[in-house]
């Protein structure tokens, strides 16, 4: 009788650049893969069928826009 190690496992991977980059991590645990993906800004977690199951969005900038004039000083 064959062993069970050849069963189809769900495989999740972290892909950079919104899915257009390279795979930097893969694991059979969805939760672990999502946790690791947080280290890669703009990355996505994809399943074995290349379906995106989680997206990491780049943080929104909260800086105040300036006029670019050199006369402005920081307070």
Topology summary:
Elements: E1 12-15, E2 23-27, H1 30-37, E3 44-46, E4 52-55
Antiparallel strand pairs: 1-2, 1-3, 3-4
Explain what this protein looks like in three dimensions.
- The chain is an alpha+beta fold and 75 residues long.
- The protein has a domain at 10-55.
- Helix content is 11%, strand content 21%.
- The protein is built from 1 helix and 4 strands; from the N terminus they run E-E-H-E-E.
- It has one helix at 30-37, and strands at 12-15, 23-27, 44-46, 52-55.
- Strands 2-1-3-4 form a 4-stranded antiparallel beta sheet, covered by helices on one side.
- A hairpin with a 5-residue loop joins strand 3 and strand 4 (52-55).
- It is rod-shaped and about 75 Å long.
- The model has no long low-confidence stretch (mean pLDDT 82).
Beta-strand residue percentage: 15-25%
Helix segment tally = 1
Backbone shape: rod-shaped
Radius of gyration: 20 Å
Largest sheet: number of strands, sense, barrel closure: 4 strands, antiparallel
Class per helix and strand makeup: alpha+beta
Overall mean confidence score, pLDDT: 82
Q: Total strand count, please?
A: 4
Distance between the termini: 75 Å
Q: Give the strand line-up of the largest sheet.
A: 2-1-3-4
- Poorly predicted parts: none
Order of helices and strands: EEHEE
Report the helical percentage: 10-25%
Short summary:
By secondary structure, this protein is of the alpha+beta class.
């Amino acid at each position: 009788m064959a062993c069970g190690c050849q069963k189809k496992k769900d495989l999740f991977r972290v892909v950079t650049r919104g899915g257009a980059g390279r795979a930097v991590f893969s694991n059979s645990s969805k939760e672990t893969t999502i946790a690791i993906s947080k280290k890669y800004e703009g990355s996505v977690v994809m399943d074995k069928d290349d379906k995106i199951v989680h997206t990491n969005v780049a943080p929104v900038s909260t800086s105040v826009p300036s006029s670019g004039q050199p006369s402005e000083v920081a307070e």
